[in-house]
Amino acid sequence: MWSKEKILTLEELLPVVAGWKAAGEQVVFTNGCFDLLHLGHVDYLEKARHLGQRLVVGLNTDASVSCLKPGRPLQDEVSRARVLASLLFVDAVVLFNEPTPLALIQAVLPDILVKGDDYQISGIVGHEVVLQNGGQVLTVPLVAGYSTTRIVERIRQLG
């Protein structure tokens, strides 16, 4: 499958997810900005995917990122989506324009909602929805020392 084919609208994603679930596959959902893809992101996404059979990544649009992180994103949403979709362990990428992925989580109803271990379960957006629908909310260990902010700071120091 070409990476472009993994980038779906919510309307396109829902029947795909329904098919996966009907086939007995557990759907894992995570989200983020993924501005400059680095080892921390790759490790995190790979761990998330191994929690189930399918991984859906909710990706903040450019407008959403700029509200959360002034001066960002560094890469546009099309570029960020395409890079994420190129990863073998990512099954679908869906953009969302809201400040949080709550509406997306409510629509997808993943079997497993996952974030990095820098979150508490109670602080993960959508945890109530997933738990009320019989799903799990989990965290995975992050690779220490990797962040887009840190990379940007290092580039500025070198420049």
Structural overview:
With 159 residues, this protein is of the alpha/beta class. Helices cover 40% and strands 18% of the residues. Strands 3-2-1-4-5 form a five-stranded parallel sheet, with helices on both faces. The longest helix has 13 residues, at 10-22. The chain is globular and about 50 Å long. The chain starts with 9 loop residues before the first helix and ends with a helix.
Characteristic key phrases:
alpha/beta
Compute the separation of the termini in Å.
39 Å
- Number of DSSP helices? 7
Helix percent reads 40-55%
Mean pLDDT: 94
Number of strands: 5
Low-confidence stretches: none
Q: Give the percentage of residues in beta strands.
A: 15-25%
Can you give me a brief rundown of this structure?
The protein has 159 residues and is an alpha/beta fold. 40% of the residues lie in helices and 18% in strands. It has helices spanning 10-22, 39-49, 62-68, 77-85, 102-108, 127-132, 148-158, and strands at 27-32, 54-60, 92-96, 112-116, 136-140.
Summarize the topology.
Blueprint: H1 10-22, E1 27-32, H2 39-49, E2 54-60, H3 62-68, H4 77-85, E3 92-96, H5 102-108, E4 112-116, H6 127-132, E5 136-140, H7 148-158
Parallel strand pairs: 1-2, 1-4, 2-3, 4-5
